Amino acid sequence: MMGGEDYRDRFEDIDWDDMQRSGLDSLTTQTAGFLASLGVVALLLVYDYVVVANDGPTFTTPFEWDVTQLDWLLVVTLLTVVFFAVYPLYDNPRMSRRYWREFRKNRAAVVSGVFLVGIFGLGLVGPLFIAKPDLNVLAQYQPPVFLSVPESTVGTCVGPVSDGMCHGTWQYPLGTTGQGKGIMKSVIYGMRVSLEVGLITPLIIIIIGTAVGTVAAYSGGIVDELLMRYVDIQLTFPTFFLYLLLLYLYGGTLFLLIVIFGITSWGSTARLVRSEALQRREEEYIQAAQSAGASEFWVIRKHLVPNVSNTVITNASLLIPSLILFEAAFSFLGLGDPTVPSWGQVISAGRSDIDTAWWISTIPGVFLFTTVLALNFVGDALRDALDPRAED
Amino acid sequence: MTEPLLSIRNLKTHFHTDEGTVRAVDGVSLDVDRGETVCVVGESGSGKTVTAESITRLIPEPPGEIVDGTVRFDGEDVTAMSEKQLEALRGGRIGHIFQNPQGALNPVYTVGWQIREAIQLHDKKAKDKEARERAIDLLDRVGIPDATSRIDDYPHEFSGGMKQRIVIAMALASNPDLLIADEPTTALDVTIQMQILRLLNQVQEEFNTGIVMITHDLGVVAEVADRVVVMYAGKVMEEGDVYEIFENPSHPYTRALLECLPGRGEKMSAIGGSLPSTTSPPDGCRFHPRCPYAVGDCEIGEQPPMYAVDDGDHAVSCVHFEPGADPSVVLGEDGSDAVGGARADGGDETGGDAR
């Protein structure tokens, strides 16, 4: 152990100016900003359901956007992510730089990150400007641009025909399906679906799982017992069949899928968080906070939750790709939302034409594959960057 | 006579476990006045920490429970307080200092945030800017050099001694009347120990704070204590003025403890055996299985009451000090071999404070 005085010298060459304080006041700004934004969203929601005619679009300028239930949920989710994940990074540039330095070491993760930003950015804004892919029997099985197929495969070739080969056009850069839907548009809409599945469901799972896990660990005794036995029951509960049941009762919607899986799959997250929180709650700073007069809620919110966040983020990085794959599998089996062109659905649509029109299944498949792979790379790097024990 | 700042009477804190009831604290009484330092000494497992935590009811309930006794702080009964009142008391009028400063600071927040938390939990009106200034002030007061810039550092950027100063700053955030220091120097190296003890001493002189110091280090006791309470297996064995305890130790346990202390110029000797089971403590005096002077009376009934030794408030729980009994059995023929007395004036030779 070093004496305090000589230790100090090592820090004097740090540039103090770029230090930014973060603390109670910024946390209140954060919460205030979040609540204010939620208020605005709530007002818009009321406007949408009370003022706007039932089928009319919510916004007409600058673009026409009929905000759906799912869109509202996505907006709230994005707000949560911005205020509780992005804002703290902005507010604390020093920590952020440290995380970035660690993250940067993993090249594959950086490339993956850029790719994911592109995919999800496009998925977020794309559907606002691009009309949904529509049926067009005159444009079946069009090949992607720069590629050509025998004219016999294609109903009516939209692009140029030469030597009995139909060439792809820029009108359908990635070709079309057997129903004449543009795969490009479908893929972009599929990005939106993956974004929604990969963001909303994990967020619901994480919020409930973290709350239950930390409260159970902190309170102990009967509270712990009740919460964890409920988790046991929930883990044995067949969510899949519940979804099927609701599917037959109300029809399959993406909203239903996302919400059902969100509120019934947090059990394992709660268990993970609890086991981590059990260790953390024995730390002296928890007792120090109690002895400083902090209430139970304050200790859990301000001291326990931030210290289990590594576990939570690691868990999320595993949840997101698996949920995206899960949704794709559901859609492939025809159990998804028939109105939403998700990747799984397009893959399924092209499976009987794989001999003649390989691109229909392959292109969304490649997107699914690369997205999940990229998510795993990023998750891996995040885990390394955020784990304080991994420091050298 | 005015009431002392803190008055613990016959405190019994038990833990109900699967293995039975652990009588961690089993009938402890002690008083602390303003401006006074009371040291609670004893081996690990003797119930010192549980006593300290019982003062503000920090013990986890369940399994812990204060089954009997009262804790009166400034005339109010803490054992009857609601959770809200306790939260106001903790960190407000009673500050805690912990054994391990590495652990007592939350690694995810800057030290400034943590001190402001301690301030704002009790002064809800304090604005962030004001609280920050007070935090800088506190850091300055506990001897953190360059407090204005270091306030935005994270705990891992401080050395152990500096961290303990920060913990003390947090404990001082609301100008408490009583500080409970649970082995505040045990985790620190020797050169830092003395600085921290002096800091506590300065704080005490400045604000007339009462201090309950939990320690097993008799060197620390000699340095800071006004009065000493010797605990063993959840019971008070002996209490009295620090000079009395060091110069005229009466309970066989106290004497044995002092013999364990190195550097007295005499042969050191360890206490044989180990602490008795706290789930089923022995009858009679808790110390009798390890006591070289144990007689038949020691093994029956309850722990002996506190008998006065000589005059003043020096008292001891030992059958040999019962009026009419012969204390020379324990004390030896001359009745006054001053075990470790030479250190009662403290090892003041260590260098000046960091400031």
Please write out the topology.
The complex is a heterodimer of chains A (392) and B (355).
Chain A: H1 4-12, H2 24-51, H3 69-91, H4 93-104, H5 107-129, E1 148-150, E2 161-162, E3 165-167, H6 183-219, H7 221-236, H8 239-250, H9 254-264, H10 267-281, H11 284-291, H12 296-332, H13 343-349, H14 359-386
Antiparallel strand pairs in A: 1-3, 2-3
Helix pairs in contact in A: 2-3, 3-6, 4-14, 5-6, 5-14, 6-7, 6-9, 6-10, 6-12, 6-14, 7-10, 8-9, 10-12, 11-12, 12-13, 12-14, 13-14
Chain B: E1 6-17, E2 20-32, E3 37-41, H1 48-55, E4 64-73, E5 76-77, H2 83-89, E6 94-97, H3 101-104, H4 111-120, H5 128-141, H6 147-150, H7 160-171, E7 178-182, H8 190-207, E8 210-215, H9 218-224, E9 227-232, E10 235-241, H10 242-247, H11 252-259, E11 307-308, E12 315-316, H12 328-331
Helix pairs in contact in B: 4-5, 4-7, 5-7, 7-8
Determine the mean pLDDT of chain B.
80
Runs of chain B in which pLDDT lies below 50 for 5 or more consecutive residues are 335-355
Tell me the domain tally of chain B: 2
How many DSSP-defined strands of chain B? 12
DSSP summary: helix tally of chain B: 12
**Total helical segments of chain A:** 14
Extended strand count of chain A: 3
Radius of gyration of chain B: 21 Å
Domain tally of chain A: 2
CATH class bucket of the largest domain in chain B: Alpha Beta
Write the CATH architecture name of the largest domain in chain B.
Answer: 3-Layer(aba) Sandwich
- Going by CATH, what is the homologous superfamily of the largest domain in chain A? MetI-like
Mean pLDDT of chain A: 81
Full CATH superfamily name of the largest domain in chain B? P-loop containing nucleotide triphosphate hydrolases
- The helix-and-strand class of chain A reads mainly alpha
Order of helices and strands of chain A: HHHHHEEEHHHHHHHHH
Bulk shape of chain A? elongated
Strand order of the largest sheet of chain A: 1-3-2
Query: Which regions of chain A are unreliable across 5 or more consecutive residues at pLDDT < 50?
Result: 1-26
CATH class of the largest domain in chain A: Mainly Alpha
Subunit structure (chain B): The complex is composed of two ATP-binding proteins (NikD and NikE), two transmembrane proteins (NikB and NikC) and a solute-binding protein (NikA).
Organism (chain B): Halogeometricum limi
GO molecular function (chain B): ABC-type nickel transporter activity; ATP binding; ATP hydrolysis activity
Region (Disordered) (chain B): 327-355
